[in-house]
Amino acid sequence: LLGQILDHWFESEPLKATLATDAVIGAMASPHTPGSGYVLLHHVMGELEGRRGAWGYVAGGMGALSQAIAQAATARGAHIFAEKAVCHVLLGRDGEAQGVALQDGTEVRSKLVLSNASPQITFLELIPQEQLPKDFVQRIRQVDTRSPVTKINVAVDRLPSFLAVPNAHDGQPLPHHQCSIHLNCEGTQLLHQAFTEAAHGRPSSRPMIELCIPSALDPGLAPPGCHVVSLFTQYTPSTLAGGRSWDEQARNAYADTVFDCIEDYAPGFKASVIGRDILTPPDLERIFGLPGGNIFHGGMSLDQLYFTRPAPSYSGYRSPIPGLYLCGSGAHPGGGVMGAAGRNAAQVAIKDFRHL
Fold first, then answer.
1. Which stretches make up the Amine oxidase domain (predicted)?
2. Which residues does the chain have with pLDDT short of 50?
3. Alpha-carbon span 264 to 151, nearest angstrom
């Protein structure tokens, strides 16, 4: 349990709760849920420019990272076709992958196919079910993809001014504006209560909020004097109590709750908002192909990690389809912006390719 780990090392409740957010981020779990300690470890492992556990901001936004990877690939001869939806994986007589078919009818032939789509999309939508072992299909269907995350992107006409550290008169960003700001995290019990509400199908009445202001570090993201605010919030169930769906009223009601909370810490925040984009779990699934809205392609619980990710006997990136490899967050070691799954899968695919 994460709570036991934090209690062992720290005394301050606000500090413990703030650290606990990284143990439940993207997970339908509370700090008291068994296995939550690993999720914290997953988020603080590694290093950035020699600093262990450090996080970095991608200049130009997260899309700039994808563009950098794309440019590195094209510089080495890769051809990239964006906005080309894949319909299914092409299979040979012996059931081996031979390329992909696009929705426009184009067929792209290849000896190897690597998929960084979720295991659910890769194996339940792009491959005929009769080509896969029944126990494997059952395992993929059973993966826990519940997600508590609602992402809210906000445009504001001035920098939030927090009661704890009011803004300078010149309106320039202060050090805390350039960090991750955690709200509603005065104690781990608050996080547990927020989780409990969502577990019963209700959006949290006092949600956990992780607030970042990318434009405080990267002014080019917003017009002069204005800013963009990224809100990573939970807990919101994929399906509301009574089987209700997330209609416009429900989405706005939850966002209003989030904004009311921020207003308590930074009076004037609501008046500064000039636009907002609300992405509930179903929105994240529909737009980005995240199963259940889960940013990790599946829960990072101990039963879905290491040799069982995405399924027992298939944690080595190879799949039941010869020549088809899984290289996204649903593969070992899981989610996060680290590229480990992709790099590992590439190494396995290269090794196999030499014998084709």
1. 34-177
2. none
3. 20
